[in-house]
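Interim report to the steering committee. The following record documents the input for DUF1145 domain-containing protein (93 residues).
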Amino acid sequence: MLEKSEFWLALMAGMVLFYCYALLLLVQGLLEHSVLMISLILLAVHALEIPLASRAVKARGIGLGRLLLPTLLFGIVWWLPASRGTFSEAHSA
């Protein structure tokens, strides 16, 4: 399961939906909603993952510019399979 790109892409899709819901709450002015707070905490934790992600994907030739946005949005859900080549193998098959 962890080797399948579909698993990781499904997790990323769920995170995108979560962030969209948080954005909707922000636009509606519901600043104290727990979903909004959790999304901000997730973004902060993902920012702390950037050095780990950089080391993990370095062997794959992924530079800092390419890893910043996915790491901020998805964290380990992006960089762990990227470091294992899960996504590149799925595209070559």
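The chain is about 80% helix and 0% strand. The committee is asked to note this result when reviewing the revised timeline.
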